[in-house]
Give the backbone structure.
Amino acid sequence: MLYNFLTSYTMRRIGSAIITMMSASVIIFAFIHLIPGDPIYVMLGDGATPDQVKDMQIRLGLDKPVYIQYLLWLYQVLQGDLGTSLFFQIPVLSVIADGAETSLLLASITMVWVLLIGIPIGMLAATRQGTLTDQAASGLAMFFASVPTFWVGLYLILFFAAWLGWLPSSGYPSIFGDGGLANLRYLLLPSLALAAPNAALILRLTRASMLDVSRQDYVRTARAKGIRPWQVTVKHIFRNALLAVVAAFGFTLAALISEAVVTETVFALPGVGRLVVQSILRRDYPVIQGVILVTVILYLGINLLVDLINRYLDPRVELE
Amino acid sequence: MLSVQDLTVSVITGKTPLDITRNVSFELNKGEILGVVGESGCGKSMTALAIMGLLPKTTIAVRSGRVLLDDQEITHLEPHQRVDAGLSGISMIFQEPMTSLNPVMQIGDQIIEALLVHDRGNMRAPAARAKKLLDLVHIPDAAMQLKAYPHELSGGMRQRVMIAIALACNPQVLIADEPTTALDVTIQAEILSLLKELCEELSMAVLFITHNLGVVAQLADRVSVMYAGQIVETASVEVLFEHPVHPYTHGLFSCLPDPTKRSEPLQPIPGQAPLITEITDGCAFAPRCKFKTSACLSGSIDWTGISNGHKTRCHHPLKEQK
């Protein structure tokens, strides 16, 4: 019975993600039409001949009715064909794939920092509420949540790369090439810069949520049982505080995606973030469109995952 | 068995401590049910939490007085320290069964957690023992319910689970702090009869805290009436209901609706209970009392014995029958 219920929640949640994805796809498709003026001239430049324009129209399918254009586009997208980059003249998907290694590794390492720094220190601050430890942790968190990522990035470069010379300041050679896994050191500073505001956020949330839960009646019940204080903290307070923290992961990851654009630029990383910035400067619309599409899919996927984890952690969760 | 002596609980955050309860003393014997009656804010719950060792020590603490369990002092020990010292004989159930259970833990696990702490010699088959406890508190289909989460149970069922958790701690004394206030009247009666039954079966003492005189009449052997942080009258249930002598106790009875006197208006006690910041020397009830004299306004009011086991903190105990 419980299994059926769980499966049906999962199914409904996936269903709603698909509906959201379809709505998003319409907006992303319309993106190409949002380009000011005639997109053909914008793409080809003012010196285009009528033949070239006609060619381009047919290539982009702009000569057909809009709904046909959408369906054709959708059909191609479902086959993994996101069009061709105007700048690189190769499929958009492989342009994105080139940056994916950097970006995915950067995001993963950042999330590890966020969890490793945010949750334990948040717990510590909550259990020592009002002490110097708490004030120091909360103060630093407030600071890092307030300063922009690029500022933290620049100071990290200044300190660890320029002064101490411990770590490289820019670039990232693939871990599959020369140097192997040791190349991950190139991602150390960028991931720390990117983790700073997000770890600060998770830290503050963990702390606040633990303090909130520790005032609940059931925590008093747990204490009354005579179990050890650390058991009360872990099994009763933290376990419930985690619900709010996990729910915030979705937002943290979304913030990560946009902050990665800045960080990859500051550290000159060959990732998807920098690709976006360069593509905008190059007016490489199919690439921008493709990145938006992939980002939306990623975002929906992460949120789906977060919701399913929360469903697992909290037996009360129900889709209304 | 449980002896509370001159217990004064105070808010200790300010420059001078503010007393929430003042010199609360009582004895609780094996198998006995003592009802503590009083209005909200009179210090009943704080007394209970102090006895339990659950006060939030940084803000509210026991300033003076002692709590003894079988002649061993446990006043300043928290529950887990009492477990370590082998003095964990007191359990407690609370007013809000809806929020007193961990929402993300199966109730079986919540009971087992208590079992494992209080019965270290017997680690085998905790699930079977948890099921026995659920049977003991009359939860139908106990084996299934072990796997249930609190939100799947009704308020009455949750309070039974709370009682099962309390029993898992092997208590000699059970403190019940308004355990039926949040429940429907029919469920309330079931929980009360369950408590009475357990008290007899397990020869456990119960400290029953309530603002409801009817519940006390139904359940308790003896009653202590609290007002503004002090016990003002103590007697057996029969005596107190027959012959309340403290003007406050008398006032409480006058507030009860009586179906035989429908045409007469209820007689609320004039004025309001004082805030803890307003309590001064003398009798705290004096400002609302029509029998007060100048003697009531200064010094501390000592106990006056009325009859065997019946005493009051009043200079002018009422003489006439109610």
Q: What stands out?
A: Residues 229-266 of chain A form the longest helix (38 residues). Chain A touches chain B at residues 216-218, 220-229, 231, 235-236, 239-240, 243, 313-316 (CB under 8 Å). DSSP finds twelve helices and no strands in chain A.
